[in-house]
Design a protein that fits this description.
single chain, mainly alpha, Helix Hairpins, two-stranded parallel sheet, 2 strands
């Protein structure tokens, strides 16, 4: 358990180094805080709690770390004005049940699947369709 804590704390330091060259600015929000919770018990608002992290296989842990770094670099790109081509907001991709590394073709395919499912003319939920349209428009603006 201590080994897992140590590895995950290193990720926090690495995020600070990537985004700010060292220590985080006062009041800066870390991606790490929304991904990892090293307290005993449930994860709270974080995506992965300590109990979950310790029970992950090597491959599952690698996937969690890859997703974490995708979000870190997305935030870095936004903060430095270089987001755009080739970058999608990982949180919107997650809402569409797409992996963090989805490309434009994957996004279009998933959008069409969900649009058919939720379109009001085919008996779908209008509020979910509107939410889907807003998410797709947000992704399209980055292109």
């Amino acid at each position: 358990m201590d080994d897992v804590k140590r590895r995950v704390r290193k990720l926090k330091k690495l995020e600070q180094k990537i985004r700010w060259g060292g220590e985080a600015a006062a009041g800066a929000a870390l991606v790490w805080d929304s991904f990892f919770d090293l307290r005993d018990g449930p994860a709270g608002k974080a995506k992965h709690g300590l109990a979950e992290l310790t029970s992950m296989s090597r491959e599952e842990y690698k996937c969690a770390v890859d997703e974490f770094f995708a979000r870190v670099y997305y935030e870095y790109y936004l903060e430095n004005g270089i987001a755009g081509a080739g970058t999608f907001d990982p949180s919107i991709l997650a809402r569409l049940d797409l992996p963090f590394d989805a490309d434009e073709r994957d996004v279009k395919k998933r959008f069409r699947e969900l649009a058919k499912k939720h379109h009001p003319d085919t008996g779908g939920d209008a509020s979910k369709f509107i939410e889907l349209m807003n998410a797709y428009e947000s992704l399209a603006q980055l292109r």
